[in-house]
Amino acid sequence: FFTATASGSPYIRKGVKMMKTLKIDRLDPQYAICTDKEKKLYAIELSELPKNAKQGDILLIQDDGVITIRK
Q1: What is the pLDDT of residue 32?
Q2: What share of the chain is helix, strand, coil (3-state, %, to 5)?
Q3: Is the pTM of this model over 0.85?
Q4: Which of 2, 11, 49, 56 is deepest in the core (most CB within 10 A)?
Q5: Is there a contact between 25 and 33 (Cβ–Cβ < 8 Å)?
Q6: Which residues, listed in sequence order, are joined to residue 19 by a DSSP beta bridge?
Q7: Are the C-beta atoms of 35 and 23 separated by less than 8 Å?
Q8: Nearest to 45 by CA among 16, 20, 67
Q9: What pLDDT sits at residue 12?
Q10: What are the φ/ψ torsions at residue 19 (nearest 5 degrees)?
Q11: Taking the C-alpha atoms of 47, 54, 37 and 19 in order, what is their torsion angle to the nearest 10 degrees?
Q12: Which conformational region is residue 16 in: left (phi greater than 0), alpha (psi within -120 to 50 degrees), or beta?
């Protein structure tokens, strides 16, 4: 289980721009529990998410930590 924050940098490799894609599996009182395509779990603080994020949304996390919802 991995806790991610937008200000942290688990999505950056030296010299390589990356974007992480996660699906919100469920929301708990403090975290959005998300999965990636390999089914790894990530917990992102709700305060880090866009205000309208909900279960089932696909999150795009840019290498600078900006989180958006894929339309």
Answers
A1: 97
A2: 5, 45, 50
A3: no
A4: 49
A5: yes
A6: 62
A7: yes
A8: 67
A9: 43
A10: -135, 125
A11: -50
A12: beta
